[in-house]
Design brief:
The chain is mostly beta strands. It contains two helices and nine strands, in the order H-E-E-E-E-E-E-E-E-E-H. A hairpin with a 2-residue loop joins strand 5 and strand 6. The radius of gyration is 19 Å and the shape is elongated. The mean pLDDT is 84.
Amino acid sequence: MKNNYLNLILFFITATIYGQDLNFGLVLGGNMTSTYSDGASALNLVDNSGVTNFYGGAYLDYSFSNKLGLKSDIVYTNNKLVTAIENDIKMNFVVHTPNLKYSFNDEYFKGFYLIGGPKISILTSAESDGADLKEIFNSTTFGAQLGAGTNLNNYLSIEAKFDAGLSNLLSDDSDKLNFIAFILTLNLNINELIK
């Protein structure tokens, strides 16, 4: 069974390196988040606007045509909820964003593009002053992203996206809490570097 997975991974890597329609690389950047809530008073939240966080991981970018493709990011990001008490709640997420990408250029991997689609966030940890608070949050939440980017050259592109959570972050549905964010990233095309 392990050999089958290894063979599948090797096939994927080989197909990626030699495929003209598929690129892969690194996503590095940050996000600025705010919270919106309805009754999340038990957490003693204060103004949570403008909190900056790390945002980084990897991407696959596949073109269906010269204009349309799918860019799928898998990234790690952290966040925090600022509370009225001394200790903030620090949270870590793994986020998957299978976004549709529309290119305004005649070549898919060149020039300006629009990007948007769903977001799936998996909470990996939530703690305050060493205490595990993961049980008060949903482990998986959903959202949406919409943005734009441009390919600076064959190796680098820059993206700006608006991100909104659509499902409740809190496991107790009597209160509502979620994040909205502005994300700015630099994408490094590893596929082009190793050709």
